[in-house]
Amino acid sequence: MDQDTQKHAIDSLRDWSKWLIGVDFAAATGCVVVLQGGDPQGLARLFLVLAIAAFALSVLCAVILTRSLASVVERLPLTGAEGQPVSTSGYRIGAGVTIGGLASAQIVLMTLGGGLLIGWIVV
């Protein structure tokens, strides 16, 4: 994996995170509108509140990741202990958090929010 490959991976992940921010924000906004307008009760309300929280946390992960990727680009090429290029997903951005871990968290939270939204529809 050379510097160009690492840069391409970072650019692709940044584009994905920007797209995810838009989708999550729209979904959370829709949930808030339903929550305020329809005044759901009981389990339906819980599903909506949890969906909003999951979408918001996904946006937060995506924002942190997008910001972190900008500083990672400045450190290219990323190399391991032996000086060999390493995968960008394993790069630690702080407090033991890796790029891959943060990317996984944002998609898991988005999926959780979508599942909770479907749960609200079913209930």
Oligomer: single chain
Strands of the largest sheet, in order across it? 1-2
Low-confidence stretches: none
Shape label? elongated
Tell me the number of structural domains.
1
Question: What's the mean pLDDT score?
Answer: 90
Measured between the Cα atoms of the first and last residue, the distance is 48 Å
- Biggest sheet layout: 2 strands, antiparallel
How much helix, percentage-wise, in residues? Answer: over 70%
Beta-strand content estimate? under 5%
What is the radius of gyration computed over CA atoms, rounded to a whole number of angstroms?
18 Å
The tally of strands reads 2
Q: If helices are DSSP runs of H or I spanning 4 or more residues, what is the number of helices? A: 3
Q: Could you spell the SSE succession in H and E letters?
A: HHEEH
Given the helix and strand composition, which structural class is it? mainly alpha
Describe it.
This protein has helices spanning 3-38, 42-74, 99-122; strands spanning 92-94, 97-98. It has 123 residues and is mainly alpha-helical. It has one domain. A two-stranded antiparallel sheet has the order 1-2. Helix 2 (42-74) packs antiparallel against helix 3 (99-122). The longest helix has 36 residues, at 3-38. The N and C termini lie far apart (48 Å).
Summarize the structure.
With 123 residues, this protein is mainly α.
Topology at a glance:
Elements: H1 3-38, H2 42-74, E1 92-94, E2 97-98, H3 99-122
Antiparallel strand pairs: 1-2
Descriptive tags:
123 residues; mainly alpha; membrane
